Automatic annotation (TrEMBL):
Lineage per the UniProt record: Eukaryota, Metazoa, Spiralia, Lophotrochozoa, Mollusca
Name used for this protein in its record: Uncharacterized protein
Listed SUPFAM superfamilies: Galactose-binding domain-like
PANTHER family per record: F5_8 TYPE C DOMAIN-CONTAINING PROTEIN, FTP DOMAIN-CONTAINING PROTEIN
Length: 221
């Protein structure tokens, strides 16, 4: 895990005892290119709260079909919510997570978006892997993403040739769990999400930690 990157993130997460809900738990999810042999391991497996058995046989992970140049998964939070961070656990098949595990090659290059629509380009890019290798990419990921949105979208592609060293030929999204932490009550922020966003915030949207308006209604700054 990227230790240097995680220290400021964890200190921000735990300061003042602030806690957030997993607002993705058991929410509707969608998977591009569902594997035809494993229809029972659909998109919903990544938001069922189970991440103990990280293999196909464990039945707790999504299983996508190979042979495609793009892979996408998303969860519908049911409304526009304030998000603090996103946790991702990828399939390991119970093998050591390093360059000897073929699954590391499928995770390389992935990105995560938060959007108000099902179209990732309508939203905000929270993270894109541009530097990890099969030896260095962590599993699992905690991604800081203080945004407001309804859909969290995992995306990967193999469309830009030549592919970087170590990348799989096809894109897959075999996610075991995606947890989205934030406020289950919209237009709120702060400790236990108990403080309403200010009235001058555009559409009532504000930062999940400090309440800064993410845009202001006309006449306010």
């Amino acid at each position: 895990m990227d230790f240097i990157w995680m220290i400021p993130f964890l200190s921000q997460f735990f300061r003042f005892g602030i806690t957030y809900d997993n607002v993705a738990l058991n929410k509707p999810a969608w998977l591009q290119h569902q594997h035809p042999k494993y229809p029972q391991y659909g998109a919903e497996r990544a938001v069922d709260g189970n991440k103990l058995y990280l293999s196909i046989s464990g039945g707790q992970c999504t299983v996508s079909s190979g042979g495609y140049s793009t892979a996408e998964w998303r969860v519908d939070l049911g409304g526009v919510l304030s998000i603090h961070h996103i946790f991702i656990q990828y399939r390991t098949d119970f093998r050591v997570w390093d360059e000897t595990n073929i699954l590391t090659s499928y995770l390389l290059g992935f990105s995560v978006y938060v959007s108000n629509t099902t179209i990732k380009e309508d939203g905000v890019l929270c993270f894109m892997d541009k530097s990890y290798t099969r030896k260095t990419i962590p599993n699992n990921f905690n991604i800081s993403c203080r945004q407001n949105g309804r859909f969290v979208i995992y995306y990967n592609n193999r469309t830009q040739l030549p592919l970087p060293d170590g990348y799989s030929v096809s894109a897959e999204s075999d996610l075991c769990e995606v947890e989205v932490y934030g406020c289950s009550k919209s237009r709120h922020f702060g400790d236990n999400c108990s403080t309403p966003c200010r009235q001058n915030c555009l559409e009532g949207r504000c930062d999940v930690v400090d309440g800064t308006c993410l845009g202001c209604i006309p006449g306010y700054t």
